[in-house]
Amino acid sequence: MPSTALPEHGFCHMPRQTVIQICGADRVAFLNNFCTNNIKQLAKHDSCELFITSVQGRCIGYGTVTAFEDSLVLISAPDQSTPLTEHLSKYVITEDVSFTDLSKGNAFILTNTNAPPIEVGKQDSGDIIVDCHWFETNAIWLLSDDDQPLNIQGRESFSTDQAHALRIENRIPVYGLDVCIDNFPHEIQRTAQAINFNKGCYLGQEPIARIDAMGHVNWMLVLIQFPNELSIEPNTELTANEKVVAKIGSVQTAKNDNERYALALVRRELANAATDIQTDQGTIKVM
């Protein structure tokens, strides 16, 4: 599979992301009670993927959280700050925890941040740096009030289309497009990265554990390949004999060679790699 190439020392000015800073002495224990991963295991500046789930085990949110000495920083797709903070805030009773929306700042992705090194942390300038898990190579999120922060100087810019194209190839979902409240976390196929089955109780834990132990899901998020002449758009459905067989999420916009890639929820029995799915709209291939 051809891979989208990014500049070796590049940066991309992304649309504003959801950035929520969680403070207070009870912040770690509190968030741990409402997400699928074990936040208590995070060392300073470590990060992990997580789902925030409803009591039914459905996905209210998906993103990453990074531990700082005095706070947690939660990053998700754009426009998720209000629903996430409203959901979490209604469970605050006596806990020492507070939420600050930092989503109005600029968000940059920087690639190959080992040379020279750019370390995760809060800088004197006020910029916040956390790991970015979109790519297999080293990358960070740079969150800044400055639209020309010092750390992007001397780097080659790349487009948001390029960033999302490689994210899609790496099978990384974004909330609101590839995952939503209709989904169980198991459907998104980030179980190893985002779910800890040994952490104990949290909101939605029982149905999630039950599915893992005794059940299965009917849909699975996969990477699909399709020819350029096939018109596939985000938030559309593909059918076979008028039955929905694929729900399209993120779609590459740049046309490479003769095919493009997308993330799609497909029926479980069709989700095996190398499966050709014959749809009423054309043939797609599970990668």
Explain what the structure shows.
The chain is an alpha+beta fold. The chain folds into 2 domains: 10-169, Gyrase A, domain 2 (2-Layer Sandwich); 218-286, Elongation Factor Tu (Ef-tu), domain 3 (Beta Barrel), CATH 2.40.30. It is 14% helix and 33% strand. The protein is built from 5 helices and 17 strands. A hairpin with a 2-residue loop joins strand 13 (237-240) and strand 14. The longest helix is centred in the middle third of the chain and has 10 residues, at 160-169. The model has no long low-confidence stretch (mean pLDDT 95).
Would you kindly provide a brief summary of this structure?
The protein is of the alpha+beta class and 287 residues long. The protein has helices spanning 27-32, 81-89, 160-169, 191-194, 205-214; strands spanning 10-14, 18-23, 47-53, 59-67, 71-76, 98-101, 106-111, 121-122, 128-131, 139-144, 156-157, 219-227, 237-240, 243-251, 259-267, 276-278, 283-286.
By DSSP, the count of extended strands is 17
Report the biggest beta sheet as strand number plus sense, adding barrel if it closes.
6 strands, mixed
- The total tally of domains equals 2
Quaternary structure type: single chain
Order of H and E elements: EEHEEEHEEEEEEHHHEEEEEE
User: Could you name the CATH class of the largest domain?
Assistant: Alpha Beta
| Count of runs of 4 or more consecutive helical residues | 5
Question: What's the arrangement of strands in the largest beta sheet?
Answer: 8-9-10-7-1-11
Sheet-strand content, in percent, reads 25-35%
Question: CATH superfamily membership of the largest domain, which one?
Answer: Probable tRNA modification gtpase trme, domain 1
CATH topology of the largest domain: Gyrase A, domain 2
Task: Specify the structural class.
Answer: alpha+beta
Low-confidence stretches: none
The 3D shape can be described as globular
CATH 2nd-level architecture of the largest domain = 2-Layer Sandwich
Distance between the termini: 9 Å
Chain-averaged pLDDT: 95
The helical percent reads 10-25%
**Rg to the nearest angstrom?**
19 Å
